[in-house]
Amino acid sequence: MSRDHQELARLAALRSYQVLDRPRPVVLDDLTRLAANMFDTPISAVSLIDHDRQWFAGRVGLAESQTPLDVSFCAHVVPARAPLIVPDATKDSRFADYANVAGEPGIRFYAGAPVIDEDGHVLGAMCVVDTQPREVSDRQVDDLVTFARQAAGHLSALRGRLRVADLGDELARSSQREDDLVATITHELRTPVAIIQGYLEVLGEQDGLEEYRRLIDPIHRNGRRLVEMVDHILAGTRPAEAPIPAPVTTVDLNTVAAAATAACRSLIVMRGGPVDLAAYEPVPIQADLARLTHAVEQLLRNALFFTPPDRPIMIRIEAVPAAAIEVRDGGCGIPEDELPLIFDRFFRGRRARENAVPGVGLGLTIARNIVRAHHGDLIVQNTADGVCARIALPGPSGRR
Under DSSP, is residue 389 helix (H, G, I), strand (E, B) or coil? Predict the structure, then answer.
C-alpha cells in the first residue's frame, strides 16, 4: 500500500471513532490530568492528527480545542510510530521556529508517545509539555507509552459502545447518553475555568503585578478545587446500574502507585511528612490506569488528612500470592461503630467533622466502585498503629 493510501486509511480509521468536533470524553480528560500530575507538567493532551489539524480529544492546560499541524509536535510522532522526546525545543531545528515555541506559551519540553489502535493505525499522540527544558528517564518514557496505550484502549471502548448503540442495545445507549451528559457538563464547566486559570497563570508571571499575587493565587487554587469537586461528585453519584468501562490494557501497579502519589503532591508538601513508596519489580495487571489511580489517590488522601506529620504513611505493593496495593498510615484510626458505614455515599465520620477535613463523603465510595469494576476487593480496617486500606486485584491471568 502506498503512503498516500496508508494515510487515507488512517484518516478513515480516525473518523470512525466519532470524537472529532465533539465534547471531550471525560476518561481522556482524566488521563491527561493524571499524566500532567505524574510528569509535573502544566500541559498534557491526547492529540488526534487529522489531515490539516490536531484535535485535542483530552487536554489539560490548553485553552484551544485544536491547532494547525504547522505547530504540532505530535504530528511528528505519527509517521515515526515511536516516542518523541524534545528536551529543549529552542535547540531543535525542527521546532525552534514554531509559533508556540518562539511565542506563547513558550514550549520548551515535549514528550509524546503514539496512540496506536487495535488495527495498527496511529491516531495521534499522548503528550506532556512544559515551558521549561527538562529531561526524562527511560522509566518515564515507558510510563508515557502506557498512558498512550490507555488512550487507545479508551477510544476503542468508546467506538465499540457507539457501534453497539447503533445496533439498538439499550444498555449501551444509556451508558452513551450518560457519558455524553457528563462530557457536556465537564466541557461547559471546566473549559471556561481552564481558560480563566490560563490567564491567571499569565498574569502571575507578569512583572509589576507581584502585589496582586495574593489575589491571583487563591483564585487559581479555588478554580482547581471547583473542577475537582464537580468531577468528584459526578463520579460518586454515578447510578449503580451504570457500568464503569472495563479495564483496557496491561499496566504496572508501580505506575499506579507513583501516579497516585504525584496526584497528592500538594497535600504531601502541606502535611510536611514523607510518604514511603518503595520500588518493586513490575506487577502487571489489567486496569484502567486513570480510574485505578483515582481509587488509590482517595485512600492516600484519607491517610494524609488523618495522620500527623511525625507518623508514617506507607504504600506497599505485592505480586504474590496476588496483585495488591496497600496504603498504611499511623493515624487516629476509625471508630469501630463507623466501620460498617465508611463506604456509604456522603458518610462523614465524626473525626472528619470535628477536624474540618475537606470532602463530601464520597472518596471511599468511589474507590470501592472502581475496585469492583476491576473485579477486585477493597478492605479498610484498623491496625495496631492506624489504618490499612488494601486493594486486591486479579493478575493478567484473572486470578486473585
Answer: strand
Strand partners, 318: 324
- List all residues 6 or more positions away from 124 whose beta carbon is below 8 Å from its beta carbon: 14, 46, 47, 48, 49, 54, 57, 74, 77, 78, 114, 115
Q: What is the mean pLDDT of residues 67-74?
A: 95
Task: Name the residue among 174, 187, 147 with its Cα closest to residue 243.
Answer: 174
Rounded distance between C-alpha atoms, residue 123 and residue 47, angstroms? 8
The phi and psi torsions of 277 (rounded to 5 degrees) equal -120, 105
Q: Which contacts (CB < 8 Å, 24+ apart) does range 98-106 have?
A: 98/70, 98/71, 99/71, 100/67, 100/71, 104/202, 105/43, 105/131, 106/131
Residue 174, C-alpha cell as written in the block: 444509556
CA 159/CA 42 separation, integer angstroms: 29
Lowest mean pLDDT among 10-24, 116-130, 240-254, 332-346: 240-254
Helix (H) or strand (E) holding 328: strand 323-329
Q: Pick the closest to residue 83 from 7, 12, 3, 147 (CA basis).
A: 147
Residue range 4-40, pLDDT digits in tens: 788 999 999 999 999 999 888 888 988 999 999 999 9
Closest to 10 measured CA to CA, from 159, 29, 2: 2
Burial status of residue 332 (CB atoms within 10 A of its CB: 0-12, 13-18, 19 or more): middle
How would DSSP label each residue in 113-162? EEEE-TTS-EEEEEEEEESS-----HHHHHHHHHHHHHHHHHHHHHHHHH
Phi, psi of 190 (to 5 degrees): -75, -30
- Partners of residue 382 on adjacent β-strands: 387
Distances (CA, A) of 33 to 43, 77, 292: 9, 21, 14
* pTM for this model (two decimals): 0.76
